[in-house]
Amino acid sequence: MKRARPAFGPIDAARAGGDAEPLRILRRHRSGALRKRRRRGGLVLLATLCGAIILGGTVEGARHYLTHSRYFRLRRIEFSETRYAPQPDLRRSLARYVGRNLFRLDPVRLGGDLEARRWVKRAVVKRVLPDGVFCAIEERVPKGLALLHDRVWLVDDEGVAIDPNGRQTQDYSYPILVGIDDRNGERGRAQMKRGVSLVAFLQETHPDLLKEISEVDLSRDDRLELRMNRGGPAVRLNPRDFGTNLDRYLTLRGYLATDFGDGAYVDLRFRDRIAFRPLVGMKGD
Phi and psi of 173, rounded to 5°? Predict the structure, then answer.
């Protein structure tokens, strides 16, 4: 017996054939849209690449012009106002850069050349278009006189030697700092810094006493020793507290000179105690 065919078979086949055509059209549409997007992306990428090339060429051209143009050659060097650092000396430090292109100079290097001068503590150099530089100078300020290698030098508050004995040192009246360690730079600088601090303290608190002092001996780390212009006992001060017993001694020193005569030294380092050693009979320190 034969199995009867379903009556709806031909109808489903026809329906299936009818649905396939829209699907093919949809796929073609999607493929075309994808190709268009790819073409647009490629054009954008190409335009970006061309723009980058043009921009790079423009930048390179501008850089070449700035670094090679005669218009930007260094002709003017200006300084902030200085009181101590001689400007002719500062100008000589930068003379070799005159005529060079402003954009090929390193301002940090120029500042380093200026800081090599003794009187310059810090220098900042800025370009001033089209053909100049401006140099802001922080000077080292003289705060004392120190004996170094048998020469008297001006020194600043950091213990840095500025200028050797010469015309400029004659304008300053300070006690001379002696006993400085020439062989140990770090210790010598610390000694000078301590001595300058003492001078500043006396300028503020005892200016009349400062005028009487000829030398300050810094050779010992446990004391500072004052030696007077007119002789008399050396005065030993506490290196960490300069004012310990100082006012009491200044009140008593006339009495000590009258009743005990000349002395070898007066020691003010110890709290609430003044040690006076007479000169007569002294056998050692």
Answer: -120, 95
Exposure b/e, 186-204, CB count within 10 A at least 16 = b: eebbbbbbbbbbbbebbee
Q: Report how far residue 124's alpha carbon sits from residue 137's, in angstroms, rounded to the nearest whole number.
A: 7
Beta-carbon count within 10 A of 274 CB: 17
Q: Note the pLDDT tens digit of each residue in 163-213.
A: 886 556 567 889 999 999 989 999 999 999 999 999 999 999 999 999 999
Domain count of the chain? 3
Contact (Cβ atoms closer than 8 angstroms) between residue 266 and residue 274: yes
Residue 36 lies in a domain: yes
d(CA 167, CA 33): 90
Q: Exposure pattern of 85-95 as b/e (b: 16+ CB <10 Å)?
A: beeeebeebbe
Residues 6+ apart with CB under 8 A from 152: 145, 146, 164, 165, 169, 176
Residue 4 lies in a domain: no
pLDDT averaged over 10-residue windows placed end to end, the chain, 285 residues:
52 53 57 62 69 69 73 95 93 96 95 95 96 96 94 94 72 92 94 97 96 97 95 94 95 86 90 86 50
Within 10 A of 111 (CB to CB), how many other CB atoms are there? 20
Tell me whether residue 168 is in a domain. Answer: yes
Q: Is 216 exposed, middle or buried (0-12, 13-18, 19+ CB in 10 A)?
A: buried
Instruction: Confirm if 102 and 110 have CB atoms less than 8 A apart.
Output: no
Q: Helix, strand or coil for residue 266?
A: strand
Residue from 134, 29, 5, 126 nearest 81 by CA = 134
100 and 201 belong to one structural domain: no
